[in-house]
Amino acid sequence: MSAQQRTKRETTMAEKQELSVREKKELVAKEEKTIPGRYYVPYADIHETDDALAVVLEMPGVEKKDLDIALENDVLRVDGQIDFTKYKDMEPVYTEYNVGHYARSFTLSNKVDREKISANLEDGVLTLTLPKAKHAQPRKIAIG
Question: What confidence tens digit (pLDDT) does each residue in 8-48 have?
């Protein structure tokens, strides 16, 4: 398929997609939370390159100081707290999503180098970079 055909196909696909409001999915946790407020599952996209996995999470309203990322027993947990005092005196006229904390966890495979995991939070978007372990990265085999 040529680049022109691919561009035309992508444009046609984009025209057919309709915009819709996504409802926030409330977290149903097995354990009890001691912090008041609802917890929601942040939407996530996962991208893979030759070197790493990138996990991009939507966490609007969460600040760096209120974000906790922990790795324990091969489970990477992300917990973002909302400062409700910002919303104390606001009376919404119209809302499309509820305000609440965020929690999500991912079980990591042995392909992830746990020592080199990094995180960046910018404008309510958390990007986790999970570098692949050396044995999991593609390599060129020399012909002898």
Answer: 555 545 555 565 556 666 666 555 566 666 889 999 999 99
Percent with pLDDT over 90 in the chain? 46
| DSSP notation for 82-144 | E-GGGGTT---S--SS---EEEEEEE--TTB-GGG-EEEEETTEEEEEEEBPGGGS--PPPP-
Rounded-to-integer distance, Cα 97 and Cα 91, Å: 14
Q: What would the pLDDT profile of 86-106 be if each residue is shown by its tens digit?
A: 778 888 788 777 778 999 999
Buried (b) or exposed (e) across 55-78, using 16+ Cβ within 10 A?
Answer: bebbbebbeeebbeeeeeeeebeb
The H or E element spanning position 10 is helix 3-16
All structural domains of the chain with their residue ranges: 3-136
Q: Which fold has domain 3-136?
A: Immunoglobulin-like (2.60.40)
pTM for the whole structure: 0.69
Q: How far apart are CA 95 and CA 60, in angstroms?
A: 14
CA 90 to CA 96: how far, in whole Å?
15
